[in-house]
Specification:
By secondary structure, the protein is α+β, with helices and mostly antiparallel strands. Helices cover about 45% and strands about 15% of the residues. The chain folds into four domains: about 120 residues, no CATH class; about 170 residues, 2-Layer Sandwich (Nucleotidyltransferase, domain 5), CATH 3.30.420; about 100 residues; about 70 residues, no CATH class. The strands form four sheets. Strands 1, 4, 5, 6, 7 and 8 form a six-stranded mixed β-sheet that branches. Strands 9-10-11-12-13 form a five-stranded antiparallel β-sheet, with no helix packed on it. It is flat, with a radius of gyration of 30 Å.
Length: about 550
């Protein structure tokens, strides 16, 4: 399929175009897309997705416009194409307006599927988002501050119980095996289950022994299949299916003393919850509220409320584990600014030899310093160390140390990192003994035996011990810093803005909170496109438009 090109000649007699120009506000997303579409999404920007010869595609500028409006509306592919066909605003935004000869009246919903697949396979799958970011940067809407946060993304599949997982994994293995291998695998099955359907076997589910026997027989079928595949050269599909089967039975089953298999009385740390989407996981937004699927992470410029980056992780991944990835652009910008500053300052030093150096930053320089805000999930020692190494100020909240009950918390102990010692409230000092990775432990041991404060300090027979991590210095400094009234006021005025943006992104259940696709890569691309669509809507509100000087935000 070759690249299709949109007609850029405006029909001055088009009634639809005239009506929309009169009725739609100039800062509506439809008006902005109509006016700036060829600069935002020129067909040539997608030329690498198509061949030189073949049937002409639907012009990518039209498809990109539909994809943006689709994500804003939380619509399915079929609904989006229906809106494009019958909604005047959509047609106006896409630049096709009426239904005259040569106009794109409609196209199949599979065009959207095909475009997403072509983007995913390209070297620049996030190009629509990058366009929105480049426009905002050129218009001066992206500053040196970032607010980080995350939100649950519910998976698009059903969470499976152990029996369903095992049967589904066996069925998947049989499906990808060739005819000869499938016959060999079926020959080792002893349960009598043909694994042809998703329906569970018919048993008396109130009978405990029947349920246990059902699990045991299906586990033996799974193990028999894996033994049959040992020491064989397998295709990639069969290998992946076998690994999934091994993962499922390894995470959920345990062998009893009499040799039978039963469901383990535990939940595996990285438990696969569906064979249809093996990358989805159990997650917790709080200690009492769980969800299944993925976690969407984003970085926001708090001044313009513009999303500067997104990523998606498994639901059980910590927020801080992907934080460094979200601020890569901020770190790169800071490095470039530092290089320019050093060049300028070296010239100034040559011109002002003998003059007194300035000892502090001006208010403007302080405001232009890069800074990252986040809740306590981002206040980890590792991320704080990353910020310090990158020269970025931290506005991330750090949890105070806690202890069980009414015992002395860690904050009541004096930790001296210069001498690597810890002094307890009673005045006893213990050395910090560190392991290879830098983490350490201070044991007070026998000093606690006759201590008058023992009952208020520890319940352990071995005495009190204090863990001192490799990032203890960063955590202590952060806790001290966030006691400042100025720090608290800045945090409260800035961080909540990301909550509002997440509310905008998640207001549509379909394609918002509920994922429309399966697999982390596809969910990540869909979440990124959602952010791009809201960025463009934000640019419209700010009155973005192209001038001879470049992109300008009229409301900025």
């Amino acid at each position: 399929m070759s690249l299709g090109l949109a007609d850029r000649q405006q029909d001055l007699l088009d009634d639809v175009r005239s009506f929309c120009e009169e009725e739609l506000p100039t800062n509506s997303i439809y008006s902005v897309l109509h006016r700036e579409r060829d600069r935002l999404f020129p067909d040539e920007m997608f030329a690498d997705l198509f061949e030189r010869k073949g049937r002409r595609s639907v012009p990518p500028s039209i498809v990109a416009t539909v994809m943006v409006l689709q994500r804003l509306g939380g619509l399915s592919d079929r609904e989006a194409v229906e809106h494009f066909t019958f909604d005047t605003r959509w047609r106006y935004a896409a630049g096709v307006s009426g239904y005259g000869e040569g106009k794109w009246g409609k196209f199949a919903h599979t065009v959207l599927v095909d475009m997403r697949a072509r983007l995913a396979a390209s070297e620049a799958p996030r190009r629509i988002f990058e366009v929105s970011k480049e426009v905002a940067s050129e218009a001066g809407l992206v500053g040196m501050k970032r607010v980080l946060d995350s939100t649950p993304l519910y998976d698009a599949v059903a969470t499976m119980d152990t029996l369903t997982l095992i049967r589904s994994a066996i069925r998947s293995l049989l499906r990808v095996a060739d005819e000869r291998l499938e016959a060999e695998l079926r020959a080792v099955l002893t349960s009598g289950d043909d694994y042809a359907t998703t329906a569970k076997p018919q048993i008396d589910w109130d009978d405990v022994e029947a349920r246990e026997a059902l699990i045991d027989t299906r586990a033996r079928d799974a193990l028999a299949c894996l033994r049959a595949l040992e020491d064989r050269e397998l295709s990639s599909e069969v290998k992946d299916a076998a690994e999934l089967l091994a993962t499922v039975i390894g995470q959920d089953l345990e062998e009893t003393e009499d040799g039978t298999y039963r469901i383990a009385r535990r939940v595996a740390k990285d438990r696969v919850i569906s064979t249809v989407d093996p990358e989805a996981r159990h997650g917790h937004k709080s200690s009492s509220k769980g969800f299944d699927g993925y976690t969407g992470h984003l970085a926001l410029d708090p001044d313009s409320e513009f999303v500067t980056d997104t990523t998606v992780s498994a639901a059980n991944a910590g927020d801080a584990s992907v934080a460094a990835e979200l601020i890569e652009d901020l770190v790169e910008s800071d490095i470039e600014a530092n290089v320019e500053s050093e060049v300028a300052s070296s010239g100034a030093d040559d011109a002002n030899v003998g003059s007194e150096p300035e000892s502090s930053l001006t208010d403007q320089e302080e405001a232009e310093r890069p800074k990252v805000y986040g809740d306590a999930a981002y206040g980890t020692g590792e991320f704080l160390n990353h910020l310090e190494q990158a020269g970025v100020d931290s506005g991330c909240k750090t949890q105070p140390p806690r202890n069980r009950g009414d015992l002395f918390p860690k904050s009541d102990f004096q930790i001296d990192l210069d001498t690597d010692t810890v002094t307890c409230p009673a005045g006893h000092t213990a050395p910090i003994r560190r392991n290879g990775d830098g983490d350490g432990l201070a044991r007070f041991g026998s000093a606690c035996a006759d201590c008058p404060l023992r009952s208020e300090c520890t319940e352990s027979s071995r005495g009190r011990s204090i863990r001192v991590g490799r990032y203890e210095k960063h955590l202590a400094e952060a806790r001290q810093q966030q006691q400042s009234p100025d720090w608290k006021a800045d945090y409260r005025a800035t961080r909540p803005k990301v909550e509002r943006k997440i509310g905008h992104l998640m207001r549509r259940r379909h394609g918002g909170r509920r994922a429309r696709v399966r697999g982390q890569t596809k969910v990540d691309a869909d979440f990124n496109l959602l952010a791009a669509a809201h960025n463009l809507a934000r640019l419209a509100v700010l009155g973005i438009q192209w001038t001879r000087a470049g992109w300008v935000a009229q409301a900025a």
